């Protein structure tokens, strides 16, 4: 069964329009208990429209997100330590050249 253009427009308006009658935008929550969830909100963020797009994530999805955040944090710490060592070497070299 196919839908008419008017029916499709009505579905789009009901599902995707915010309270300002603008097309809402999809964003992803990256922190807190809803990390990884996609949601729709007002493009101008003025009317306060908010609607979840995804079903709640599974326990496995939450576990993966947590592991990725920890891995990212570990890599950032390693990069900072590497940077600090390079800065110390550079400063020591500058001091030795004086």
Automatic annotation (TrEMBL):
Name this protein carries in UniProt: Uncharacterized protein
Source species, domain of life: Eukaryota
């Amino acid at each position: 069964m196919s839908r008419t253009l008017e029916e499709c427009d009505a579905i789009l308006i009901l599902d995707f329009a915010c309270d300002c009658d603008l097309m809402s935008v999809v964003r992803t929550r990256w922190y807190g208990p809803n990390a990884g969830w996609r949601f729709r909100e007002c493009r101008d963020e003025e009317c306060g429209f908010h609607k979840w797009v995804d079903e709640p994530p599974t326990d496995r999805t939450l576990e993966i997100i947590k592991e990725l955040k920890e891995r990212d944090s570990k890599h950032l710490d390693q990069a900072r330590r590497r940077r600090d060592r390079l800065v110390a070497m550079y400063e020591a070299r500058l001091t030795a050249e004086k």
